Amino acid sequence: MTREYERLVPSFPGFCGCETCRDDVIVFALNRIPPHYVTQRRGAVLQHLKMQRDQELADISVALLEGFRRVQKSPRADHRGPAAKPTG
Ligand SMILES: [Zn+2]
Predict the structure, then answer these.
(1) Does a structural domain hold residue 69?
(2) Which residues surround ligand 1, an ion (CB under 5 A)?
(3) Which long-range contacts (CB under 8 A, 24 or more apart) does 3-12 make?
């Protein structure tokens, strides 16, 4: 999930990217995709998951993209802001 996030971040150059916003995007996406995507266990239904992997990634990407848009549009009031430079 985080890997997909990292992959998609460059698609949103203006995205804040602070920890709060990142978490919001990921949590949003996690809430949008079917639970079995994120609770998959190694070895259990590997074959099944393999077949689903392409669709799974597509769904995760879509969910993440929507999360990006949401958070970008209305970031939390208490988020840290984009890579704040230490001043003084
Ligand atoms: Zn932020």
Answers:
(1) yes
(2) 16, 18, 21, 79
(3) 4/57, 4/60, 4/61, 4/64, 5/29, 5/64, 8/61, 8/64, 8/65, 8/68, 11/65, 11/68, 12/68, 12/72
The pLDDT tens digits for 6-63 are 999 999 988 999 999 999 999 999 999 876 655 555 555 555 556 567 788 888 999 9
Owning domain of residue 36: 2-73
In a domain, 78, yes or no: no
**Distance from the CA of 53 to the center of ligand 1, in angstroms?**
30
